[in-house]
Structure formats: structure tokens, C-alpha cells
Amino acid sequence: MDKEELIKKIVSGELKLYQVEEFTSSRKEALDIRREAISKLTGTELKHVSNYTFDTETVTKKNIENAIGAVQIPLGVAGPLKINGEYAKGSFYVPLATTEGALVASVNRGCSVCTQSGGVNTMIFQDEMTRAPVVKVNTLEDAKKIVQAFKSPEFMEEVRKAVSSTTRHGELLGVDPYVVGKNVFLRFAYDTKDAMGMNMVTIASEAVMHLVEERFGARLIALSSNMCTDKKPAAINVIEGRGRTTVAEITISRDVVLSKLKTTPENVCDVNYRKNFLGSARAVSFGFNAHIANIVAATFIACGQDPSHVVEGSNAITSAEMTDNGDLQFSVSFPSLPLGTVGGGTGVATQSECLSMLGVKGGGDPPGSNARKLAEIIASTALAGELSLLGALASQDLARAHAKYGR
């Protein structure tokens, strides 16, 4: 079939969108045909969607189905931002992909304050990706046998062998069992090195569940039971952590707060307490922060992360305290920041360039160091964004700034 015939068959419904590749010589040709068919079906001229630079063959195999083009998001940069981390050391220009006016300007102001104050200090406190299957058992005795087995060194050795049969990179760190009636939830935690690792831990967990089924007569109900918890608000992620658990902190002198933020350390602390602590508590929010999701989303999109993991990333706590000499001590704590520098969208051309800007493209040496470096950069950028917004609220400049940049 030629191009026009394929388009007609899609429009008429004779050919499914996902079948086009079967009749074309390349994935690029299939993409173009699909886009023209969608244009006819919707009556929409898709001249901008057709402009992109990524490699069609690679992206349509790994990242997208029924491809018709690309959506562009403006990319800005904030910095330089000085970071004194375990993995991120030096000054960084941070890419932020967003359509929200005033966001980049605000983060950039926070970067200036942080750099002038000597830089942001960062540390990684935990690094693990979780997957939690659920099995159904016949009796409570069977449930207890499974729980006790995962406390046995001998059985755990078998479990680790099952995991290692599926991956050369992932490492099982531990398993926490939870019983609800005749259901056993097993929350596996893995070190996934530089990968975000959801595919890795899913495949590894499946291998372990085959062992559990054979050994205990249990029946696997679902590889993901929502105890992981992936891409949903969940207290377990806030308490136990998921992804890269990261903390960023800085001390800013009273003079810098006065000159750069146009307010006082006392006012920043007051806003943080009443907004981020009392307001969040009254709303029963998992996010005790001002707008962490803004920075997580903008950096995730720019750097090829899964944007839906903003849910976990926004589970952050912003803290502001006075030092004994009247300066401002400011921190942001991320219990759950899932990200990676290999796999997923990190290989897409534009996102790959953004990772290169930060010096974190690909696998690190040692393994895991690039992903941890990226976590420290994002945490530091989020701190800069929190600092700027709380300063704007404290100085009563928020509406004026949005009127200038965001309308």
C-alpha cells in the first residue's frame, strides 16, 4: 500500500494506529502517515507537532507508541548554583522545562542567594527503589510461613540468587512483609545504581514470586500491589523512603536575606511555619513545602525523568530556623525522589543534552554516583526555589512578580 492508501485505511478504521509499521519501510514513515491521518480525523493542522530532532527509530522502540511527533516545552536555565555535595560539587546551570511564567526567574533568584552564601550542602541518606507484589494464601499459617521465611538467611540467599538471575546491575537490599488477612504484601527494596529502575525491580521481583509460589503454594495476585508505592501519594514513601532520599541545607546571613530577598529571617521562618507546617497539617498534606513539585517537574521533564514521579518527589519538607546570631538556616528534605541517568527518557536527544549540561549523562563511576549527583542537584535547585518563593511571600511581592513575569 502507498502512503495515501494507508492514510485512508486509518481514517476509515480498517487499519489500527499501531499496525502502520507493518506496512512501511521505516518508523519515521509510519509516524508521518499516522500524523496525517490524525490531522484528517480531527480537522487539525499539525505543522508544529511535526517538528522534532529526536531519533525516530530509537524513540518509537523505547519511549512512545502510536507516535505522531513531539510537543515542545520551553526550556530555561537557572544558575550558577553552587553545590557542596557528596556527589555534586561545583557550580551548575540547571535546565528547567516549564510553561509557568516567573518560575525560572524565581529559582534563578534563589540560586543567586545560595551561591552568594557559599553554596548548598547536600547528602544522600538512602538509595533504594521498591516494588511490592501481593500473594494470596490459603491460611494464616501459610502467611506466617512466608513472613518467617523472609527473615531466614538461608531463604534470603535463594531470593538473592533469583534476583541476580535477572539483572547484572540491581542488588536486593531487603524485603518487608505486610499481612492483611490471607494476603501477603512483600515490599522489596533494591539498589538500582544509575537507573531509576522500575523495570529492573519489576522483573527481579517476578522471579522471586515464582519461588514463593512454588515453595509456599501461594498465588501471585499482582506484581504491583500499591504498597510500593509508585506514582501515588502514600505515607509509606514519606516514612520509609523511595528512590534517592536527599537533604539539602544552607545558612544565609541576615544581610543577604535583607538585601536579596527584601525581608528578614524572622519573616521567612514565620511564613514557613504558618504556610508549610500549619497549613499543610490542616490540609493533611504529605508535602510540607511551598512549591517543590514545580522544580521537580521542570527538572524531570528537562532531564528525561518520568514526570509522574513528581507525586513522590513533592513529598518534601521545607524547614526554616533562626541561628543563634540571627541568620537563616534553611533546608529541604526529600524522603522519596525517584530518578535515574540511564534508561527511560534519558536517552532522548534533548533530554540527553540537559543531562550533559549537569555532567550526569549515562552511568557513573562508581555505579550510582551520577544518579545521586542528579538527586543532589535537583534537591539544591528545589531549595533555591523554596527560598525565593518564601521570600516573595514574606516581602508581599508574590502578586507583583507574577503580574510581571507570569501573565
Number of structural units classed as domains? 3
Our Rg estimate from Cα atoms comes to: 24 Å
CATH architecture of the largest domain: Alpha-Beta Complex
For this structure, what is the CATH class of the largest domain? Alpha Beta
Ranges with pLDDT <50 over ≥5 residues?
none
What can be said about this structure in brief?
The chain has 407 residues and is an alpha+beta fold. The protein is built from 15 helices and eleven strands.
Any descriptors?
single chain, alpha+beta, 3-hydroxy-3-methylglutaryl-coenzyme A Reductase, Chain A, domain 2, Alpha-Beta Plaits, 3 domains, 15 helices, 11 strands, oxidoreductase
Describe this structure as you would to a colleague.
44% of the residues are buried. Helix 6 crosses helix 7 (198-216) and helix 10 (265-282) crosses helix 14. The chain has three domains: 3-62, no CATH class; 75-126 and 244-405, 3-hydroxy-3-methylglutaryl-coenzyme A Reductase, Chain A, domain 2; 133-222, Alpha-Beta Plaits (2-Layer Sandwich), CATH 3.30.70. By secondary structure, it is an alpha+beta fold. The chain is 43% helix and 21% strand. Strands 1, 2, 3, 4, 5, 6, 7, 8, 9, 10 and 11 form an eleven-stranded mixed beta sheet that branches. The longest helix is centred in the C-terminal third of the chain and has 26 residues, at 369-394. It is built from 15 helices and eleven strands.
Map the helices and strands:
Layout: H1 3-12, H2 27-42, H3 56-62, E1 75-85, E2 89-97, H4 103-116, E3 120-131, E4 134-136, H5 140-149, H6 153-164, E5 171-180, E6 183-191, H7 198-216, E7 219-222, H8 235-240, E8 242-252, H9 254-260, H10 265-282, H11 292-302, H12 310-313, E9 317-322, E10 328-334, E11 336-337, H13 349-357, H14 369-394, H15 398-405
Parallel strand pairs: 1-3, 8-11
Antiparallel strand pairs: 1-2, 3-6, 3-8, 4-6, 4-7, 5-6, 8-10, 9-10
